[in-house]
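Think of the structure tokens as a kind of shorthand, similar to the way a musician reads notation: each symbol stands for something richer, in this case the local conformation of the backbone. In the example below we present two proteins back to back. Begin with the first one, reading the sequence and then the tokens, and try to describe in your own words what changes along the chain.
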Amino acid sequence: MKKKTLLAGLTAVAMTLSLLAGCSSTTAATTAAATSKDSSTTAAAATSAGTDSSTMAAAATSEGTDGSTTAAATVEGTPTLDAIKASGKLVMLTNATFPPFEMVDGDEVVGVDVELAQRVADKIGVELEVQDMNFDLLTSALAAGKGDLIAAGMSITPERQEEVDFSTPYVDTNLLIIIPKDSAIAGPDDLAGKTIAVQETTTSDLYVTDNVDSKEVLRFKSAVEAGNAVITGKADAAVIDEMTGQNVVNANADELAITEESLSHEQYAMAVAKGQEDLLAVINEVLAEAVEKDDVNTLISKYMAE
């Protein structure tokens, strides 16, 4: 009886231990599951944090990019204008033998281009200085930093566009044929076999050289000299830009005339050294306003010979 009771007690203990083991396993499994779940949650959170960090990093990168752009903009800024302001003057390069756009009056250079350049200087807040030189030296002088802009009745051409940056055009013009009053020359076809005067390195020179089968091309430093060559009989005709040609004829109305048929159409613009967008923007603003208000034509009339 006691043996059976002992066996029963042992059996009960075994069952209890088994149950406890089961409970322990269940608890461990539950704990593991919970741990696993917490780990997954933590991992997910970490992943999420990582994503947020990546997003923040991307944002930081974006901010850095913007910062770089801003820095670049600051570096680029307005270096040309800053240099001009620091010097206290805007230097205009010109050839003062091209009335009504630039000409010498006493001891100063005056004309349409001078007044327009003065407006650019006023806009920047500096004085204007005019440097007079041969026309064929203008672009090289600009490239060498001897001036800030060219304002010289300069026509836009593909060749010049390779050397300088042009402003928006402010004058439309043509090439004219200037002849003695009693000449039989009526147009371009009559220039063949003739001696023709031009201002050297100008579009007049280029046109005659490329398009006219002339006897000889006489090249002068100024349009006025080219016109005088016709008056003195050294040349049969002169090819000159429209308004300057008209100015020459007006000043010598008893001796010169203009053929009815004109030559190529052209546009005048100011020029700056390559890459000086800040200065070019100010020039374009001034010229746009002058054209809109018809000030350019008013200035042409002001300086045109009667």
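Once you have a description of the first chain, move to the second and do the same.
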Amino acid sequence: MRKKTASVRILIILFALLMTAWPGRTYVSHAAEIYYNHVMSVVVASDDGGCSFRMGPGMTYGETYRISSGTELTVTALSRNEKDGLVWGQCIYNGISGWIEIRTAAVSDIQGASIACYDVQVTAEDYLYLRQGPGAEFPVLETPIRGQNLRIDRTVVNNYDGRPWGRTTYNGAQGWVSLNWTYRNSSMIYQQTKDVYMTDNQYYAVVGSENGETCFMEGPGLAAQRIGQVPNGVSLYVDRTMDNSEDGLVWGEVQYDNRLGWIPMNHTKVTGVESAGDVQYSVSVSNAADLRLRTGPGTEYAELVSYIPNGTKLSITQTMINSFDGRPWGYTVYNGVEGWVSLNWTYRAPGT
């Protein structure tokens, strides 16, 4: 009987070891939390010439391959392993699903990132670091940056800490900086006229004006020729937005009644953003005397709720960065009302 019991135990151990190392199988530890769902294009960039390709997100998983530096990969998820304290990226290599330590990779682009083109001034009291990816979990690329002007061409919200990051180039090296330690300069690169600036964020919006309708113009401004009116309740696809400093409004280019024209975005409610990242975590309101729920991701949108108290817990399902002010915004529901809140006045709730 003892021999039979020992044999069974040996078989169980062998089976567990076999399944852990079997190619094409991924076993995620309960200690690992998948928190980042943007698809990232990365290049292996390790000081020792390569990185380990493991069957799970942690040092305890077996190494299947050794991937050389310079190899391009697509990372579909990030997972933080509480046991080894490292962040791991899930990808496919040689037809097999596995994980690499994200510190060994440089992020070149992110599918969920918003395209931008504006300058920021570094305001960090000490130094700002250029990193290989949009998060403090990525290694530093360059010496500290202090008091410099940087040009931002991509923006994304890190779904783990809720902070905005921007892609830039400094001293010939491309990387990512935390936008929390910068402020945006007044002018954008996409200049159509002296006082009109454009971004290509694309929205799904529903017209909702206090007057029951909104103006439909030939150009992005009140000075443009009026085409007609768009009634409340009409759903529109906004292909791009423009900020007109003369009338102080943000305008969206739409197609309505077989005509191409512009509507003021403060008369709409944004129901979706193509460049937004789909997420699922909670935040708590902090240090905000008057956090507002708005119809869209920016202060240019109308208020739905004028005050959300400190300590309120909100569930965030989408995140994006407003290309005009560089701030992160989250889509949520408060007291049964759907809208957007500034994530600058929140912190991510532990365990979410």
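Compare your description with these statements about the second chain. The two ends are 48 Å apart (CA to CA).
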